[in-house]
Amino acid sequence: MIGTVLLAAVLVTAPASADPADPPPSQSDIREAERRAEGAADDVATIQAQIDTANADLEAAAIVAQQAAEAYNGARWRLAEARTAARQATRESRRADRALATVKADYRDAVLTTYVGGSPELDAFSAALDADGLSSLLDRGATAAIVQGEFEEKRAAYEDAAGDAEDAAQAAEDAATDAADAAADALTAKQDAESAVAAATAAAESVTAEKTRLLRRMARLEGISVALAEERQAALEQERQEQAALQAELEQQAEQEQAEEQPPAQEEPPAEEEPPADDTDDTGDTDDPVPPPPADQGGAAAAVAFARSQLGDPYVWAAAGPDAWDCSGLTMGAWAAGGKSLPHYSVAQYEQSTPISAGDLRPGDLVFWGSSSSAGSIYHVALYAGDGMIIHAPRTGRPVTLESMYYWVPPTHYARP
Questions:
Q1: Active site residue 392
Q2: Computed from CA positions of residues 391, 394, 398, 404, in that sequence, does the dihedral angle turn out positive or negative?
Q3: Cys staple from 215: which of 8, 128, 229, 277, with CB 3.0 to 4.6 Å?
């Protein structure tokens, strides 16, 4: 088709003969025009391949930036957790020190009473000398044993409290070290994210410039305006994206239907015929899989409404509003409006929610992308808006958007807050 259009353009735009009586183009002229058209078509195909490569490079750079940005969010989240643990450990250490001081005072009093005021053994011996009788001696001996027993209890309490205080102090020291390590990790992650985002931004600028150059060249080859070439390229990319999204959706639906049609594993029949048993046991439990908890329609509706109100806001890595967002910052803000607290980290959002399947999705649920089936590989999250659509903050250069869940590559994880 391109060759035909180009051939027509070559023939139509050929210099007009000054004399209408001039003979029509010869066979050699036609063959030369065809050759030029075929060469131009090959050049156009090459240019299109170069544009596709540039787009792929841009997407790869954007993914690296998303991974780095979410790694930074994860490092910040772990730092906050470590600092909380360090504060708690410090409080526990102080409580242990106060308890030790109290027990230490009791133990000190016991020492003074027992060994300065007189040892139990000497008191018992004096009692034996001064005793009026055996009964009195036994009573005095029992008193000494009681005093000694109380002293031993106070000493044991002191030793226990001292051990607890030492353990608590060590735990506080370890927690402080963990917090310091987490702070160092967060700083490194921030630097990595800054580098990745800068690289992605540079890649976007480079790809934009390269596409502009290639489209201008294509326009010259096809004899059309640059604006028309750009408009056609945008339409082509949009069509490809929609086709890829539709194909991904159909494939996932087929996988889900196949999983639902899979027959359950057959169990060995019982040795003897038995009457059918009730599906429930004495506790009311059944063998059926537990369905996911129902969506909090009020909270979910508020979350979706909040996300919709942010449409058009710019993507800024590590941002969580009020006028700029990254992916997990947007879902955190949305569900905060829905009455639930989520961390500013996509992996933790998945871990703190209830995993569900694609077929169970309801508005307000979370949709995740990871580099593998492991939850630890998640690097992007979106809010499901219903009808196969999501609201998310995609990447640098793209604002908060409502688009197909399959706009990119199929999601890998789904969860309900």
A1: yes
A2: negative
A3: 229
